[in-house]
Structure formats: C-alpha cells, structure tokens
Amino acid sequence: MKLGLIHKAACLALALLAASCSYPSSRTDIPDERPSLAFKGAPEGSVVFVDGLHMGLAPEFNGTDRVLLVEPGNHVIEVRSGNQVLLSRRVFLSGQATRTFVIQ
C-alpha cells in the first residue's frame, strides 16, 4: 500500500517537473531585403503582373498600406485593366528600395 502511494507521488512530482520545463523563448527576426513595388493612381479592378504572373490587384499595393515584394533582378511589370495595358515596364530591381509606378 505504501509502495503504491510512493509510486503515485513520484509520478505526480515527475509530471510537475516536466510541466515546469519550457523551450527557449528567444526569437530571431531576419529582415526582408527584397525590393518592392508600389502603384499610385491604379484604377479599381486593375491587376499587377510580374513576368507574366498574376500578383494581385494594383490598388492594394499603394505603398502606404502594402507593397509587392519581388526577387532582385530583371522583371517585366504590367498593370492591366481588362484587355487594356495601363503600364508596361522592363526594370532591374535590387536592394530594399521601393519602386513606385504612377498610373495615368
């Protein structure tokens, strides 16, 4: 009987000891150093394409609330509204700079 009680107490102590342990809580943030794109004056419904890939609605990437992160290098940037191409540029992007395009 005493052995069962000691066994239960040992199990409880072991469980409490295990519960008090935790993983390290340190965190390392790595800055994102990719270049970014912003679009001013883009009409509602216009769409951004980077190298022919649909990236989202141009007004969402206005540079204030949000930017479009891209990999460094040469890219073809287009903004389209329906079948109409509002902007088409071949650009080289590098560093953490934000390139802003004004749609007219």
**Proportion of strand residues:** 35-45%
Helix content: 10-25%
**Secondary structure tally: strands:** 7
Question: Do you know the CATH architecture of the domain at 36-102?
Answer: Sandwich
CATH homologous group name of the domain at 36-102: Carboxypeptidase-like, regulatory domain
Strand adjacency order, main sheet: 3-2-5-6
Uncertain parts: none
Mind telling me the CATH class of the domain at 36-102?
A: Mainly Beta
Shape field? rod-shaped
Write the CATH fold name of the domain at 36-102. Answer: Immunoglobulin-like
| Total count of helical runs of at least 4 residues | 1
Calculate the mean pLDDT score and round it: 88
Structural class: alpha+beta
The main pleated sheet reads as: 4 strands, antiparallel
H and E order: HEEEEEEE
User: What is the CA–CA distance across the termini?
Assistant: 87 Å
- Quaternary structure annotation: single chain
Estimated radius of gyration: 27 Å
Characterise the protein shown here.
By secondary structure, this protein is of the alpha+beta class. It has a domain at 36-102: Immunoglobulin-like, CATH 2.60.40.1120. The protein is 18% helix and 38% strand. The protein is built from one helix and seven strands, in the order H-E-E-E-E-E-E-E. It has one helix spanning 2-20, and strands at 36-40, 47-50, 53-57, 68-69, 73-81, 84-93, 98-102. The chain has a four-stranded antiparallel β-sheet with strand order 3-2-5-6, with no helix packed on it. It has a three-stranded mixed β-sheet with strand order 4-1-7, with no helix packed on it. The longest helix has 19 residues, at 2-20. 13% of the residues are buried. The model has no long low-confidence stretch (mean pLDDT 88).
